[in-house]
Write a structure and sequence with these properties.
Layout lengths: L2 H10 L9 H17 L8 E2 L13 E7 L3 E9 L5 E10 L9 H12 L8 E6 L2 E4 L5 E5 L14 H11 L8 E5 L1 H12 L9 E4 L3 E8 L13 E5 L11 H7 L9 H6 L1 H17 L5 H7 L7 H9 L5
Parallel strand pairs: 2-5, 5-8
Antiparallel strand pairs: 1-11, 2-3, 3-4, 6-7, 9-10, 10-11
Length: 323
């Protein structure tokens, strides 16, 4: 393998940094944001959340907290002390339903209810951090639009998450008549946590996630959100769903997209986030082998291993000589 061959390979498939025009990308990003707010055709959902960054907790208040992430489903009780510092108790983590195998809506909400049952009598307020694209209703329920991060639960699409979870708990004999579930995206929750941690800080806050997936949230004036009929003055948090940004892709990115569960969605997320970087790197190395960038000995050994994960790639970059 010769360095010039590698550089030529990266340049050919637009995988080098020089192939990215950042000003052009930013202009396109802002254009898609504006179209999304106007309800026009856009690769960015720009989801209104009907949530503001001005609400505060009360001393002594307890909240049941749920977190559906890209890999795990977490539950706990959060209680605010006299200084409004959150105290976490009764924490539990299980695998996110739909990651290892496809699940039905019944199975999905059953797993959620299994992990909420132990907490259900500790508070009437339930905060649900749901890390997937969902339409948020004025009542703060969430209706999934699409599952990213390779979660397979197609029957859940279009169902109100909060209402369905309460229905599952009610079917098990629990009185949920006073229970209130508020759905927020993980990126929105990040923005709110930042605001709470820097209360009194005059600058604006954004929420940014770069982990299993990627997303962005920020505050927008209500008068600029043309796609909803909402007469309240002030601002609300917008869930951008920036992982869906559809940039012009190179041949290598296009090829890799076809190997994913939903090749026509979450283009930007599949270019930069943890759920895909390992598999994308594996795909690129495979193409480099086809073009004889690597030796036959390397090709033989590489073709015998399973698809690389982002964790393995990270470990190698940190400790390349650690066997």
């Amino acid at each position: 393998m010769v360095a010039n061959d590698v550089y030529s390979f990266l340049e050919k498939y637009k995988l080098n940094a020089e192939s990215v025009d950042f000003e052009k990308v930013l202009d396109f990003f802002f254009n898609q944001m504006e179209k999304g707010l106007d309800g026009k055709d856009s690769s960015l959902e720009m989801i209104p959340t009907y949530a503001t960054d001005t609400e505060n907790a009360k001393p002594g208040q307890s909240v049941i907290v749920l977190d559906a992430g890209g890999t795990n489903f977490r539950t706990c009780l959060v209680t605010f002390d006299e200084e409004l510092k959150p105290i976490i108790s009764d924490f539990k983590k299980v695998g996110m339903p739909g990651v290892k195998a496809e699940v039905s809506a019944k199975e999905f909400f059953s797993v959620l209810a299994d992990n909420v049952e132990r907490l259900i009598d500790k508070s009437d307020n339930i905060g649900f951090c749901f890390s997937y694209a969902a339409t948020i209703t004025p009542e703060h329920d969430g209706i999934p639009i699409v599952f990213s991060k390779e979660v397979k639960a197609p029957e859940v699409i279009g169902k109100p998450i909060g209402k369905a979870l309460l229905a599952e708990l009610a079917s098990r004999g629990y009185d949920v008549s006073k229970k209130k579930i508020s759905i927020v995206n993980d990126t929105v929750a990040t923005l709110l946590a930042t605001k709470a941690g820097y209360n009194g800080y005059n600058s604006g806050c954004i929420g940014f996630i770069l982990g299993t997936g990627t997303n962005t949230a920020y505050c927008e004036m209500n008068e600029n959100i043309a796609k909803i009929d909402y007469e309240e003055e002030g601002a609300q948090i917008i869930n951008v769903e920036s992982g869906g940004l559809k940039l012009k892709l190179g041949e290598m990115d296009e090829g890799f997209l076809q190997t994913t569960k939903n090749p026509n969605s979450y283009f930007f997320e599949k270019m930069i986030s943890g759920a895909y970087l390992g598999a994308f790197s594996h795909y690129v190395i495979g193409k480099a082998i086809e073009e004889e960038i690597f030796s036959d000995a390397f090709a033989t050994r590489f073709n015998a291993i399973p698809t690389l994960t982002t964790t393995e790639m990270s470990n190698y970059l940190e400790m390349p000589h650690n066997t």
